[in-house]
Amino acid sequence: TFTEMTSIRLKTRKNSFLLFRGELTSISEGWRVLFVFSFHVLVLALNGKIKEVGEKIFASNGKEVDFASALESCEEAGGTLATPMNEEENKAILGIVKQYNRYAYLGIKECQASGQFQCINGMPLNYTKWRKYEPNGKGTEKCVEMYTDGSWNDRKCNLRRLTICEF
Predict the structure, then answer these.
(1) Rounded-to-integer distance, Cα 141 and Cα 115, Å
(2) Which residues contact 1 (CB under 8 A, 6 or more apart)?
(3) In angstroms, how far apart are the furthest CA atoms of the chain?
(4) Nearest to residue 3, comparing CAs of 49, 38, 45?
(5) What is the Cα–Cα distance from 75 to 152, expressed in whole angstroms?
(6) 40-88, pLDDT tens digit by residue?
(7) What are the chain's domains?
(8) Which has the closest alpha carbon to 133: 120, 151, 148?
(9) Cα–Cα dist 45/9, whole Å
(10) What are the backbone dihedrals phi and psi of residue 30, each rounded to the nearest 5 degrees, phi first?
């Protein structure tokens, strides 16, 4: 039986595990254990930083990779790339960006229609924080990054950016 004072770390040679709302999910190297007890987040150990906003948890493993690799890492961990849906979530993600002092990919991509962006799950963007004169890639910059001031920029997807996942 786990208690609030229990501290565990599950690790195999290649994978760590994340215990999240009662589910045990294999996650990529660099992550440790996060245990949700009675719907309150107790951090047992996490190799990175986390922020909780409402029902969402944002976390980073500190790795900088291209967009596809960041998305894959988040999905392997049972989440997806961080996608702010309001100012409070944007500020939480910004807190992690500032701690690492690195730009981060967001879970937002350009649609088939040039200059139109949507969440990677296909939902429309109802909240945005574009930097002045952005987006400006006109079909050449399909991904979105967050700057260290919290504003967004459309960017090519092959650059290395901080991985921040949402759960």
Answers:
(1) 9
(2) none
(3) 54
(4) 38
(5) 22
(6) 333 323 444 789 899 999 999 999 999 999 999 999 999 999 999 999 9
(7) 1-47 (no CATH), 48-166 (3.10.100.10)
(8) 151
(9) 7
(10) 105, -20
Under DSSP, the state recorded for 1 is -
Q: Which amino acid is at 87?
A: E
pTM score, two decimals?
0.74
Structure tokens, 161: 């950016």
- Which residue from 47, 57, 54 is spatially nearest to 93, judged by alpha carbons? 57
Radius of gyration of the chain, Cα coordinates, nearest whole angstrom:
16
* CB contact at 8 A, 51 and 92: yes
Six token digits for residue 121: 């799950």
Write the burial class of residue 60 (CB in 10 Å: 0-12 exposed, 13-18 middle, 19+ buried): buried
